[in-house]
Amino acid sequence: MGANMARRLNECGYQVTAVLDVNTAAAAELAAELGCQACTQLADVTAAADVIFTVVTNDASMRGIFFGEGDNLLTGAGGKIFINCATLSPAIHREVYAATQAVGAHSLEACMASSISHAREGKLYLMLAGDAAIYEKVRPMIEQMSVNRRFIGGAGRAAEVKALVNMVMNINTAGLAEGLGLAAALGHDLAMIREVFSQTGANSRVLETDGGDMVAREHDCWFSAEHAAKDSGIAAGIASEVGLNLPLNSATLAQYTKMVELGLGGLDKSGIAELTFKGRHG
Protein backbone atom coordinates (compact mmCIF):
# COMPACT_ATOMS: atom_id res chain seq x y z
CA MET A 1 0.00 0.00 0.00
CA GLY A 2 2.71 2.48 0.97
CA ALA A 3 4.72 1.91 -2.20
CA ASN A 4 1.70 2.47 -4.43
CA MET A 5 0.69 5.56 -2.50
CA ALA A 6 4.21 6.93 -3.08
CA ARG A 7 3.99 6.13 -6.80
CA ARG A 8 0.64 7.89 -7.04
CA LEU A 9 1.87 11.02 -5.28
CA ASN A 10 4.99 11.09 -7.43
CA GLU A 11 2.86 10.94 -10.60
CA CYS A 12 0.73 13.80 -9.28
CA GLY A 13 3.76 16.04 -9.03
CA TYR A 14 4.61 15.75 -5.35
CA GLN A 15 8.30 15.34 -4.56
CA VAL A 16 8.77 12.04 -2.75
CA THR A 17 12.01 12.63 -0.86
CA ALA A 18 12.52 9.42 1.10
CA VAL A 19 11.17 5.92 1.70
CA LEU A 20 11.86 3.38 4.42
CA ASP A 21 10.76 -0.20 4.97
CA VAL A 22 11.90 -3.11 7.10
CA ASN A 23 12.39 -4.82 3.74
CA THR A 24 15.40 -2.72 2.80
CA ALA A 25 15.70 -4.27 -0.68
CA ALA A 26 12.12 -3.29 -1.52
CA ALA A 27 12.73 0.23 -0.22
CA ALA A 28 15.90 0.56 -2.30
CA GLU A 29 14.08 -0.61 -5.42
CA LEU A 30 11.25 1.87 -4.89
CA ALA A 31 13.69 4.68 -4.16
CA ALA A 32 15.51 3.99 -7.42
CA GLU A 33 12.19 4.04 -9.28
CA LEU A 34 11.11 7.35 -7.74
CA GLY A 35 14.53 9.00 -7.64
CA CYS A 36 14.54 9.50 -3.88
CA GLN A 37 16.51 8.46 -0.82
CA ALA A 38 16.17 4.97 0.66
CA CYS A 39 16.54 5.58 4.38
CA THR A 40 17.54 3.04 6.99
CA GLN A 41 17.02 5.40 9.95
CA LEU A 42 13.58 6.68 10.90
CA ALA A 43 14.92 10.07 11.93
CA ASP A 44 16.32 10.53 8.43
CA VAL A 45 12.83 10.20 6.96
CA THR A 46 11.54 12.95 9.24
CA ALA A 47 14.49 15.15 8.33
CA ALA A 48 13.91 14.64 4.60
CA ALA A 49 10.17 15.32 4.40
CA ASP A 50 7.54 17.85 5.43
CA VAL A 51 4.73 15.26 5.31
CA ILE A 52 5.41 11.67 6.37
CA PHE A 53 3.02 8.82 5.57
CA THR A 54 3.12 5.69 7.71
CA VAL A 55 1.63 2.31 6.82
CA VAL A 56 2.52 -0.35 9.39
CA THR A 57 1.22 -3.74 10.44
CA ASN A 58 0.01 -3.33 14.01
CA ASP A 59 0.11 -1.28 17.20
CA ALA A 60 3.51 -2.64 18.20
CA SER A 61 5.00 -1.53 14.88
CA MET A 62 3.42 1.90 15.25
CA ARG A 63 4.80 2.25 18.75
CA GLY A 64 8.21 1.20 17.47
CA ILE A 65 8.46 3.81 14.72
CA PHE A 66 7.28 6.67 16.93
CA PHE A 67 8.68 5.72 20.34
CA GLY A 68 11.60 3.37 19.63
CA GLU A 69 14.76 3.80 21.68
CA GLY A 70 17.54 5.62 19.87
CA ASP A 71 15.79 6.16 16.54
CA ASN A 72 12.22 7.20 15.84
CA LEU A 73 10.14 9.49 13.66
CA LEU A 74 9.68 12.10 16.41
CA THR A 75 13.35 13.06 16.33
CA GLY A 76 13.50 16.65 15.06
CA ALA A 77 9.81 16.45 14.15
CA GLY A 78 8.76 20.02 14.97
CA GLY A 79 6.46 21.38 12.25
CA LYS A 80 6.15 18.04 10.45
CA ILE A 81 2.82 16.38 9.56
CA PHE A 82 2.40 12.64 9.99
CA ILE A 83 -0.42 10.96 8.07
CA ASN A 84 -0.99 7.50 9.53
CA CYS A 85 -2.85 5.11 7.26
CA ALA A 86 -2.77 1.69 8.91
CA THR A 87 -5.67 -0.05 10.63
CA LEU A 88 -4.69 0.19 14.28
CA SER A 89 -6.40 0.61 17.62
CA PRO A 90 -7.86 4.03 18.42
CA ALA A 91 -5.67 4.07 21.52
CA ILE A 92 -2.36 4.04 19.62
CA HIS A 93 -3.58 6.77 17.26
CA ARG A 94 -4.43 8.93 20.27
CA GLU A 95 -1.06 8.15 21.83
CA VAL A 96 0.77 9.21 18.67
CA TYR A 97 -1.40 12.34 18.36
CA ALA A 98 -0.47 13.42 21.90
CA ALA A 99 3.22 12.71 21.31
CA THR A 100 3.33 14.73 18.08
CA GLN A 101 1.60 17.64 19.78
CA ALA A 102 4.21 17.54 22.53
CA VAL A 103 7.06 18.07 20.03
CA GLY A 104 5.27 20.68 17.90
CA ALA A 105 4.30 18.27 15.12
CA HIS A 106 0.91 17.05 13.90
CA SER A 107 -0.71 13.64 13.46
CA LEU A 108 -3.62 12.85 11.14
CA GLU A 109 -5.37 9.52 10.74
CA ALA A 110 -6.14 8.48 7.16
CA CYS A 111 -7.57 4.99 7.57
CA MET A 112 -7.94 3.18 4.26
CA ALA A 113 -10.87 1.00 3.17
CA SER A 114 -9.49 -0.01 -0.19
CA SER A 115 -7.04 -2.37 -1.90
CA ILE A 116 -3.55 -2.14 -3.38
CA SER A 117 -4.86 -1.31 -6.85
CA HIS A 118 -6.91 1.58 -5.44
CA ALA A 119 -3.77 3.01 -3.82
CA ARG A 120 -1.98 2.89 -7.17
CA GLU A 121 -4.84 4.57 -9.03
CA GLY A 122 -5.62 7.25 -6.45
CA LYS A 123 -8.99 5.68 -5.70
CA LEU A 124 -8.73 5.05 -1.98
CA TYR A 125 -11.65 5.59 0.37
CA LEU A 126 -10.21 7.40 3.38
CA MET A 127 -11.57 7.97 6.88
CA LEU A 128 -9.72 10.87 8.49
CA ALA A 129 -9.39 12.21 12.00
CA GLY A 130 -7.31 14.69 13.94
CA ASP A 131 -7.24 18.49 13.75
CA ALA A 132 -9.53 19.86 11.04
CA ALA A 133 -7.07 22.64 10.20
CA ILE A 134 -4.30 20.11 9.49
CA TYR A 135 -6.68 18.08 7.35
CA GLU A 136 -7.48 21.17 5.29
CA LYS A 137 -3.77 21.90 4.88
CA VAL A 138 -3.04 18.49 3.31
CA ARG A 139 -6.43 18.05 1.67
CA PRO A 140 -5.20 18.71 -1.91
CA MET A 141 -2.71 15.86 -1.49
CA ILE A 142 -5.33 13.60 0.08
CA GLU A 143 -7.71 14.29 -2.79
CA GLN A 144 -5.11 13.09 -5.30
CA MET A 145 -4.98 9.78 -3.42
CA SER A 146 -8.67 9.14 -2.92
CA VAL A 147 -11.91 8.90 -4.84
CA ASN A 148 -13.84 9.74 -1.69
CA ARG A 149 -13.11 10.65 1.88
CA ARG A 150 -14.79 11.45 5.18
CA PHE A 151 -13.39 13.61 7.98
CA ILE A 152 -14.82 12.09 11.15
CA GLY A 153 -13.48 14.02 14.14
CA GLY A 154 -10.79 14.07 16.78
CA ALA A 155 -7.89 11.67 17.26
CA GLY A 156 -8.90 8.01 17.32
CA ARG A 157 -12.34 8.52 15.81
CA ALA A 158 -11.41 7.41 12.29
CA ALA A 159 -9.74 4.33 13.74
CA GLU A 160 -12.97 3.50 15.54
CA VAL A 161 -14.97 3.73 12.32
CA LYS A 162 -12.36 1.70 10.41
CA ALA A 163 -12.62 -1.02 13.06
CA LEU A 164 -16.39 -1.07 12.52
CA VAL A 165 -15.95 -1.32 8.75
CA ASN A 166 -13.58 -4.26 8.95
CA MET A 167 -15.58 -5.97 11.68
CA VAL A 168 -18.72 -5.97 9.53
CA MET A 169 -16.76 -6.91 6.40
CA ASN A 170 -15.19 -9.87 8.17
CA ILE A 171 -18.54 -11.03 9.57
CA ASN A 172 -20.06 -10.80 6.09
CA THR A 173 -17.15 -12.77 4.63
CA ALA A 174 -17.48 -15.50 7.24
CA GLY A 175 -21.24 -15.67 6.68
CA LEU A 176 -20.84 -15.96 2.93
CA ALA A 177 -18.29 -18.76 3.35
CA GLU A 178 -20.74 -20.69 5.53
CA GLY A 179 -23.61 -20.18 3.09
CA LEU A 180 -21.57 -21.35 0.09
CA GLY A 181 -20.08 -24.22 2.07
CA LEU A 182 -23.51 -25.46 3.08
CA ALA A 183 -24.81 -25.06 -0.48
CA ALA A 184 -21.88 -27.12 -1.76
CA ALA A 185 -22.55 -29.84 0.79
CA LEU A 186 -26.17 -29.97 -0.40
CA GLY A 187 -25.01 -30.42 -4.00
CA HIS A 188 -26.26 -27.11 -5.37
CA ASP A 189 -24.70 -25.40 -8.37
CA LEU A 190 -22.70 -22.63 -6.75
CA ALA A 191 -22.92 -20.27 -9.73
CA MET A 192 -26.71 -20.48 -9.36
CA ILE A 193 -26.47 -19.93 -5.59
CA ARG A 194 -24.31 -16.85 -6.04
CA GLU A 195 -26.76 -15.44 -8.60
CA VAL A 196 -29.68 -16.02 -6.22
CA PHE A 197 -27.74 -14.44 -3.35
CA SER A 198 -27.04 -11.38 -5.53
CA GLN A 199 -30.78 -10.82 -6.09
CA THR A 200 -31.91 -11.30 -2.49
CA GLY A 201 -31.19 -10.25 1.06
CA ALA A 202 -28.08 -12.45 0.98
CA ASN A 203 -26.37 -9.95 -1.31
CA SER A 204 -23.29 -8.14 -0.06
CA ARG A 205 -20.14 -6.43 -1.27
CA VAL A 206 -18.09 -9.50 -0.31
CA LEU A 207 -20.29 -11.68 -2.51
CA GLU A 208 -19.00 -9.63 -5.43
CA THR A 209 -15.36 -9.54 -4.34
CA ASP A 210 -14.90 -12.94 -2.68
CA GLY A 211 -17.69 -15.30 -3.74
CA GLY A 212 -16.02 -16.59 -6.90
CA ASP A 213 -12.67 -16.95 -5.14
CA MET A 214 -14.24 -19.02 -2.37
CA VAL A 215 -15.67 -21.46 -4.91
CA ALA A 216 -12.52 -21.64 -7.05
CA ARG A 217 -10.17 -21.74 -4.02
CA GLU A 218 -8.27 -18.76 -5.42
CA HIS A 219 -7.05 -16.93 -2.35
CA ASP A 220 -4.31 -14.68 -3.70
CA CYS A 221 -3.83 -12.10 -0.98
CA TRP A 222 -5.39 -8.66 -1.23
CA PHE A 223 -6.41 -8.49 2.43
CA SER A 224 -4.93 -11.29 4.50
CA ALA A 225 -6.67 -13.55 6.98
CA GLU A 226 -3.98 -12.52 9.48
CA HIS A 227 -4.99 -8.89 9.09
CA ALA A 228 -8.65 -9.86 9.34
CA ALA A 229 -7.92 -11.55 12.66
CA LYS A 230 -6.07 -8.46 13.87
CA ASP A 231 -8.88 -6.11 12.86
CA SER A 232 -11.66 -8.24 14.33
CA GLY A 233 -9.55 -8.32 17.49
CA ILE A 234 -9.34 -4.52 17.52
CA ALA A 235 -13.15 -4.37 17.32
CA ALA A 236 -13.41 -6.90 20.16
CA GLY A 237 -11.12 -4.76 22.30
CA ILE A 238 -13.16 -1.63 21.64
CA ALA A 239 -16.39 -3.48 22.47
CA SER A 240 -14.89 -4.71 25.73
CA GLU A 241 -13.93 -1.15 26.68
CA VAL A 242 -17.55 0.02 26.33
CA GLY A 243 -19.08 -3.11 27.87
CA LEU A 244 -20.67 -4.63 24.75
CA ASN A 245 -20.93 -8.31 23.87
CA LEU A 246 -20.54 -8.92 20.12
CA PRO A 247 -21.07 -12.67 19.58
CA LEU A 248 -20.87 -12.56 15.76
CA ASN A 249 -17.58 -10.69 15.88
CA SER A 250 -16.29 -13.16 18.48
CA ALA A 251 -17.17 -16.10 16.24
CA THR A 252 -15.56 -14.44 13.21
CA LEU A 253 -12.43 -13.63 15.19
CA ALA A 254 -12.24 -17.29 16.24
CA GLN A 255 -12.44 -18.41 12.60
CA TYR A 256 -9.70 -16.07 11.39
CA THR A 257 -7.56 -16.94 14.41
CA LYS A 258 -7.98 -20.60 13.49
CA MET A 259 -6.76 -19.82 9.97
CA VAL A 260 -3.62 -18.26 11.41
CA GLU A 261 -3.09 -21.26 13.69
CA LEU A 262 -3.44 -23.60 10.69
CA GLY A 263 -0.79 -21.66 8.78
CA LEU A 264 -3.36 -20.08 6.45
CA GLY A 265 -2.97 -16.52 7.70
CA GLY A 266 -1.24 -15.42 4.50
CA LEU A 267 -4.25 -16.31 2.38
CA ASP A 268 -6.74 -13.64 1.41
CA LYS A 269 -9.71 -13.23 3.75
CA SER A 270 -11.72 -15.29 1.24
CA GLY A 271 -9.67 -18.25 2.46
CA ILE A 272 -12.04 -18.54 5.41
CA ALA A 273 -14.03 -20.78 3.03
CA GLU A 274 -11.29 -23.36 3.61
CA LEU A 275 -12.82 -23.83 7.06
CA THR A 276 -16.41 -24.27 5.86
CA PHE A 277 -16.38 -26.36 2.68
CA LYS A 278 -16.36 -30.11 3.27
CA GLY A 279 -13.09 -31.77 2.36
CA ARG A 280 -10.98 -28.66 2.78
CA HIS A 281 -8.66 -27.63 5.62
CA GLY A 282 -11.42 -27.20 8.20
Q: Any idea what the shape is? A: globular
Instruction: Give the overall average pLDDT.
Output: 96
Please, what is the CATH homologous superfamily of the largest domain? NAD(P)-binding Rossmann-like Domain
How would you sum up the major sheet?
5 strands, mixed
Structural class based on helices, strands and sheet pairing: alpha/beta
Extended strand count: 7
The low-confidence parts are: none
Distance between the termini: 31 Å
* CATH fold-type name of the largest domain: Rossmann fold
Word description of this protein:
The chain is an alpha/beta fold. The protein folds into two domains: 2-154, 3-Layer(aba) Sandwich (Rossmann fold); 160-275, N-(1-d-carboxylethyl)-l-norvaline Dehydrogenase, domain 2, CATH 1.10.1040. The protein has twelve helices and seven strands. The protein has helices at residues 2-11, 24-34, 42-48, 59-67, 90-102, 116-121, 132-145, 157-185, 190-198, 205-216, 225-241, 247-261, and strands spanning 18-19, 37-38, 51-54, 81-84, 106-112, 124-129, 146-153. The strands form two sheets. It has a five-stranded mixed beta sheet, with helices on both faces. Strands 1-2 form a two-stranded parallel ribbon. Strand 6 (124-129), helix 7 (132-145) and strand 7 form a beta-alpha-beta unit. Helix 9 (190-198) runs antiparallel to helix 10 (205-216). The longest helix is centred in the middle third of the chain and has 29 residues, at 157-185. The two termini are 31 Å apart. The mean pLDDT is 96.
Short summary of the structure?
This protein has 282 residues and is of the alpha/beta class. Helix content is 54%, strand content 12%.
